[in-house]
Design a protein that fits this description.
The chain is mainly β. The chain contains two helices and 40 strands.
């Protein structure tokens, strides 16, 4: 037999102290369906003891959660988990966040550092098919994961914001094969707020939509096949450990930073634009630009993180690797020796023409300077 249970919350407050299960057991045609729709108001799951909110517990039951507005509070680190029970849990379940908020709290509606996760497949079998559609609103959790890699699972960014509640090396990590478990960026785009934390996206993200990195803190892209329409770093730091390809380029806003995430470097393709006040970080490694144009609204040595030309040894420093991109030198300060900046006693620094390499050198001898027609220039610089 099958059963369907629908609950609509249009205001007020609904408190659930134990586990909240949408879709429990039943294996008839279509399976049992449990649906919760929140249009406004507040739904609290748990108070001070960690619980679970479950979609599809046992058999082919289906869980459906639709949040159009209001607040779903996962208190005391409560998790939102799909397909629990055992491998016999094989339902098709969906969460759709169109507006409002789903928030993990460490306490009872307090403490924004909740450890709750979205687990798109806890123990479900291969026939389970689970989806989270982030179309709007804000999802604030510690991580989006799959405990089991057997089921089909998809996390679809399409306009809403995913906000970190703590540091996590598996902030987005669907553990299954890319053919069955995927992170998709649809037309509405992916908005990820690191919220002062350091978080890693382990999976490749793919789609025609754009990625916008928001908030202070660090977002690291570990996957080697991220492929998006565009990317914007609006705040904080975006580290590329793997690769990020875009069709419309990557933009770094004023006050934001981009860089390679480790000593092996990271790769960008599709172009890179640094707004005035944006930075390139070379602390971890060298970012490679494989294609497109590198351009600036205004860029100087002060916009480099991890290289201080005033204390750097005399050498040549690679800032952006690669030989297949086009360098637009407009708005780039100290380009070429003739525009070198004195950074110490008889020491100069400049951006090398044809690349973004930084060259730190001693002042050439007067004879050489005279031959180059630069002696008078340097005398004027020092006067």
């Amino acid at each position: 037999s099958t059963a369907k249970g629908f609950v609509n919350v249009g205001g007020g407050t609904l408190n659930v102290e134990g586990d909240l299960v949408l879709g429990y057991a039943g294996s008839g045609a279509g399976g049992n369906v449990g649906r919760l729709t929140i249009d406004s108001g507040t739904v609290n799951v748990a108070t001070t003891t960690k619980r679970w909110m479950i979609l599809n517990q046992w058999d082919t039951s289906k869980g459906e959660l639709i949040v159009n507005g209001g607040n779903l509070n996962l208190n005391a680190g409560t998790d939102l988990r799909f397909s629990t029970g055992n491998t016999g849990s094989t339902g098709t379940s969906v969460v759709t966040l169109n507006g409002g908020a789903i928030t993990s709290y460490s306490g009872n509606q307090t403490g924004t550092d909740g450890a709750g996760v979205v687990d798109l497949n806890f123990t479900g079998g291969a026939a389970a098919n689970n989806t989270f559609n982030l179309n709007g609103g804000t999802l604030s959790v510690r991580a989006v994961i799959t405990t089991s890699d057997s089921a089909t699972a998809a996390f679809n960014f399409n306009g809403g914001t995913l906000k970190a509640t703590g540091d996590d090396a598996n902030f987005i990590n669907l553990d299954g094969a890319a053919t069955t478990q995927s992170v998709n960026v649809l037309a509405g785009g992916a908005f990820i707020d690191s919220n002062g934390h350091t978080v890693d996206v382990v999976d490749d993200m793919a789609g025609a939509g754009a990625l916008t990195k928001q908030g202070s803190g660090v977002l690291r892209l570990l996957g080697g096949g991220n492929s998006l329409g565009a990317a914007t770093v609006s705040a904080g730091t975006l580290y590329i450990n793997g690769s990020l390809g875009t069709t419309s380029g990557t933009t770094v806003a004023s006050g934001a930073t981009i860089g390679a995430g480790d000593g092996d470097g990271g790769a960008l393709s599709g172009g890179l634009h640094i707004a005035a006040g944006g930075s390139i970080d070379v602390t971890q490694g060298v970012l490679t630009l494989a294609s497109g144009t590198l351009s600036f609204d205004g860029f100087d040595f002060d916009d480099l993180v991890g290289l201080d030309v005033y204390t750097a040894a005399e050498d040549t420093y690679t800032i952006i690797g690669g030989s297949s991109f086009t360098l637009n030198t407009a708005n780039l300060a100290h380009l070429g020796w003739e525009n070198a900046l004195m950074v110490g006693a008889n020491k100069y620094a400049y951006f090398q023409e044809g690349s973004l390499d930084v060259v730190v050198i001693p002042e050439p001898g007067a004879v050489l300077l005279g031959g180059l027609g630069l002696f008078g220039l340097l005398r004027r610089r020092r006067s």
